[in-house]
Amino acid sequence: MGGLSAAIHLRLKGFDVTLYEGNEQVGGRAGQIQADGFTFDTGPSLLNYPWVFEQLFAAAGRRLEDYVTLLPVDPSIRFHKPDGRTLELSSDMTRLVREFTRLDPGCGPGLAAFLADSARKYRLAFDNLVCENFDSPWQWFSALPPWQWLHMGVWRSLHGELKRFFRDELILDALGSYGMYLGGSPQQLPGLFSILPYGELAMGLWLPRGGIYGLVRGVEKLARELGVTIFTSRIVRQISVRDGAVAGLEFADGSSEPWSLVISNVDVPLTQKILLEGSSIKARIPRMTPAVMTFYWGVRGKVAGAGHHSIFLPRDSARAYDQLIRLGQVPDELPFYVAIASETDPSLAPPGDSTVFVLVPLPLPEHQEDWSTLAGSLKQRVLGRLSLHGVRLDPAAIAVERIMSPADWARRCGLYRGSAFGAAHTLLQMGYFRQPNREKRVRGLYYVGASTTPGTGLPMVALGGKMVAERIAADVR
Ligand SMILES: Cc1cc2nc3c(=O)[nH]c(=O)nc-3n(C[C@H](O)[C@H](O)[C@H](O)COP(=O)(O)OP(=O)(O)OC[C@H]3O[C@@H](n4cnc5c(N)ncnc54)[C@H](O)[C@@H]3O)c2cc1C
Predict the structure, then answer these.
(1) What is the pLDDT of the chain when averaged over all its residues?
(2) Are 9 and 466 in contact (CB under 8 A)?
(3) Mean local confidence (pLDDT), 244-254
(4) Distances (CA, A) of 129 to 54, 90, 190, 469
(5) 78 lies in a domain?
(6) What is the phi/psi pair of residue 364, to 5°?
(7) How far is the CA of 30 from the centre of ligand 1 (A)?
(8) Can you give the pTM of this predicted structure?
(9) Averaged pLDDT, 458-477
């Protein structure tokens, strides 16, 4: 998505753009599996910030809705604790207040204050910090006056920030759980990321018709219409560097092409470690987000007791984060996420059936593991936990099963050690301090995607495409 967005924005600036995709389909992590009438998105399943894609199409004088139909998903996510307590999020304010006050009758004013506070942070962040290319720490810090920096909560943890407004453990746990995808516990990540749950509540959660891949198709179509040349099944083996500048690309089939300007959408650590291997550039490996094991089940019939998005939290989330992120262990009590996209778009499954996607976060693997044994035990644990919550998913009803281990993710998408979401979003890996989208050590080499600025997630990498195009246009001017 980052590469497609960069290609579109560069094309709009008058560049000739060629995109080389190693797989047989574009989309990368946002890929698609089709089997026996079931359609699965491989990675992303939650689409937020639709305005980013509206702006992408508007930049080309088009309307998103002419290419992609977005279906609202509301209520959006239901969180489950092992003791049976649940919390359901919604963009419908009446429903949201009812749900929060059911858990904590006194939390209405806290919820209102949280929404107002995060709305301000969100606006300040997107207007001043997120979408800009910064060249120095000074430029980054002076993007906001000091009193506004204090408001951003970067010096406080996400957990500390949430505790200013809420005291119910489930509410704190649920809103803090977004940290998992950013590579840290809510205790470790900056409080600024309270804008994540806020963004979902304020702007809603969406599913493109046809699944997330419906959005990828729309963006690919736009790129082709604008004249971007796209080659698929074209694996880049090396970025050639001569005299400190990009000289071209070498492909897995032995061919090569001269290029003086290259944007790598392959996750940055892997670009530096593998694609620049022949150069003198030493890879700088940032702290990475966890790996994942993902399951794709085509299920006969409906899965009673579950909506579209469910997150199953452990009893002790702090311990699970510690095991997953600091100790590099599979947590004793597994947090995991389930999406049944056919609940919102029934065309994703044969009539009356269901597409089920399960995501289990795992520590970054140290070495090659016995993935099929681990997958078998994770599946049993997931099914056991589902039945504990009354979600009726009979294993015998699973007609289609596909599994992607961290090794599959690494191989299929070029992910460093299978890290699902790229470089983590700790304080020292955000804004100016994140891997910049220009490789200072190689003239003509740029980056786009989850591990560079502004960060991970479909909307962020799409914004990153615009930012790198602006950077290049300024550099070649
Ligand atoms: C399981 C999972 C669930 C996720 N859930 C969500 C979610 O719900 N919502 C959300 O917004 N985000 C989610 N994300 C994150 C989101 O998918 C990513 O941040 C985003 O898609 C990354 O885009 P990217 O531009 O970095 O490119 P990638 O998706 O990493 O694509 C890189 C492309 O480069 C290609 N490539 C790699 N090596 C080569 C080579 N040598 N030669 C040629 N081509 C090559 C790959 O095939 C791929 O197409 C999820 C990610 C995963 C893995």
Answers:
(1) 96
(2) yes
(3) 97
(4) 20, 27, 15, 17
(5) no
(6) -60, 125
(7) 6
(8) 0.97
(9) 97
Here the CATH number for the domain that contains residue 11 is 3.50.50.60
E strand spans, 179-290: 206-208, 229-231, 236-242, 245-251, 256-258, 262-264
* Total domain count, the chain: 3
Beta bridge partners of 241: 246
Residue for token pair 């959660």: 205
In a domain, 79, yes or no: no
pLDDT in tens, 100-157: 999 999 999 999 999 999 999 999 999 999 999 999 999 999 999 999 998 898 889 9
Q: Which residue range is the domain that position 400 belongs to?
A: 291-416
Strand-pairing partners, residue 409, are none
Last residue of a domain, one of 204, 227, 256: 204
**Quick one: which of 100, 228, 117, 104 has its CA closest to 164?**
117
- The three-point CA angle 220-225-231 to 5° equals 55
The two structure tokens encoding residue 365: 């693997």
The per-residue pLDDT for range 209-230, each reduced to its tens digit, is 999 999 999 999 999 999 999 9
Tell me: the pLDDT tens digits for 271-318? 999 999 988 889 999 999 999 999 999 999 999 999 999 999 999 999
Instruction: Report the separation in Å between the CA atom of 27 and the middle of ligand 1, taken as the mean of its atom positions.
Output: 7
Q: Are strands 245-251 and 32-35 parallel, antiparallel or unpaired?
A: unpaired
Tell me, yes or no, whether 124 and 167 share the same domain.
yes
In ligand 1, which atom is closest to the CA atom of 1? 25
How far, in Å, CA of 429 to CA of 414, rounded? 21
Residues 426, 283 within the same domain: yes
Residue 197, pLDDT score: 93
Quote the pLDDT of residue 69: 98
Residues 391-404, mean pLDDT to the nearest whole number: 96
Q: Are residue 296 and residue 371 in the same domain, yes or no?
A: yes
Atom 28 in ligand 1: residue holding the nearest Cα: 28
Q: How far is the CA of 149 from the centre of ligand 1 (A)?
A: 31
Pair 253, 272 in one domain:
yes
Distance of CA 465 from the midpoint of ligand 1 (Å): 13
Q: What is the CATH number of the domain that holds 347?
A: 3.30.519
